[in-house]
Design brief:
The protein is an alpha/beta fold. The chain is built from 12 helices and 16 strands. The chain has a domain at 37-154 and 210-241 and 264-342: Rossmann fold (3-Layer(aba) Sandwich), CATH 3.40.50.150. It binds S-adenosyl-L-homocysteine. S-adenosyl-L-homocysteine is lined by residues 32, 38, 46, 48-49, 81-83, 87, 110-113, 116, 134, 149-151, 154.
């Protein structure tokens, strides 16, 4: 067992089994604090690391939404979980087309990992951005433009399993001295299981990401009252889908979830319909989820790539595989989705 596994084992020995959410919080905290996981050398590659066009289009999305709402000022641009800072750098470069949007804009990066924050400081030097380690009510006093790419999938989930005795939470415990999963003997309160899942067959797994729902509720309230727009892009599902999606990735392949905590990236599919319902209940208008392919296509991704290819013909052999990776159905095009949260008073944002 590695050092973090030993610590978790000691915790379980002292106080009993912990939830998968608590396990994820400990393991992901250490994972992001101790490395730069992105890129071809890292554990996984994200859309902004594939092509500059991704961040550029998201930046222009914010500018257009700002424009459609009568250019409110002063506004705030927030990115959740900015990774290497690449997306924000590309977004701000594209947004220079609208200097008025950037003028006086409060740009805030929400990042919990000190190591990644140091990389972001390097990438975004001189661009007037600031950092905070969590999204909170201090960000509620202005129109809010918010981008989150592959952030929500990293937030801690709980898993409930349907058994002959009803729903039980899957916990992390110790068996024969090793970390292992086990069902809690305690019944899950009915109120935690949505009606749509009440008739699930035995063995069905229901995952819920409470921090994601709370965060979307808070973001939607701010957008509904102050104006602005939030764009959530992530991998996930857009139907009522049963099943277990928690996964660990290391070196671009699947790893065992409990074997080496803190050494692999833990994530789960984002439940887009629950996020959408939460935002609507909070008083906002919701657009999507649209597939990443449909969303980027509507924003003109093909034209942008053609433009880059014309300007730099020698790079074309690199460009087309990048486009393919972002929009092909067998790559990120269908699995990844985009969801927009806007005030109820506005019409469709670009991309939807
Ligand atoms: N958006 C980036 C990186 C995605 S990885 C990209 O597309 O490349 C997830 C990011 O979220 C990392 O920067 C990680 O450190 C950060 N993160 C994960 N959980 C967090 C939390 N609870 N609070 C703040 N940041 C978090």
């Amino acid at each position: 067992m590695n050092a973090l596994a030993e610590r978790i084992a000691a915790l379980v020995a002292a106080q009993g089994p912990i939830s998968i959410a608590d396990f994820m919080t400990l393991a992901s905290g250490q994972y992001y604090a101790t490395r730069d996981p992105f890129g071809s050398e890292g554990d996984f590659i994200t859309a902004p690391e594939i092509s500059q066009v991704f961040g550029e289009l998201l930046g222009l999305w914010c500018v257009q939404v700002w424009h459609d709402q009568g250019r409110p000022k002063p506004a705030r641009l927030v990115e959740l979980g900015p990774g290497r800072g690449t997306l924000m750098a590309d977004a701000l470069r594209a947004a220079r087309l609208a200097p008025e949007f950037l003028d006086g804009l409060d740009i805030v990066l929400v990042e919990a990992s000190p190591g990644l924050r140091a990389i972001q400081e390097e990438t975004l030097k001189g661009l007037g951005v600031r950092w905070t380690d969590r999204f909170d009510s201090q960000l509620s006093d202005r129109p809010l433009f918010l981008i989150a790419n592959e952030f929500f999938d990293a937030l801690p989930i709980r898993q409930y399993v349907k058994t002959v005795h009803g729903w039980r939470e899957r916990m992390v415990t110790l068996s024969n001295g090793k970390l292992d999963f086990a069902l809690s003997p305690v019944a899950v309160p009915d109120a935690l299981i949505p009606a749509s899942r009440a008739d699930a067959p035995d063995g069905a797994v229901y995952e819920v990401c409470q921090p994601a729902l709370s965060l979307v509720d808070e973001i939607a309230r701010i957008v509904a009252i102050q104006g602005g727009g939030a764009l959530i892009v992530d991998y996930g599902y857009d139907g009522v889908d049963f099943g277990e999606t928690l996964q660990a990735i290391a070196d671009q392949s699947f790893a065992a979830i409990l074997d080496d905590p803190g050494e692999s990236d833990l994530s789960a599919h984002v439940d887009f319909l629950s996020l959408a319902a939460t935002a609507a209940r909070a008083g906002a208008a919701v657009f999507g989820p649209a597939t990443q392919a449909a969303f980027l296509d509507d924003l003109g991704i093909v034209r942008r790539f053609e433009h880059l290819a014309t300007r730099n013909p020698r790079a074309t052999t690199d460009l087309w595989p990048q486009l393919d990776r972002l929009v092909s159905p067998d790559q990120m095009g269908t699995l990844f989705k985009a969801l927009a949260i806007l005030p109820r008073t506005v019409s469709n944002p670009p991309g939807f």
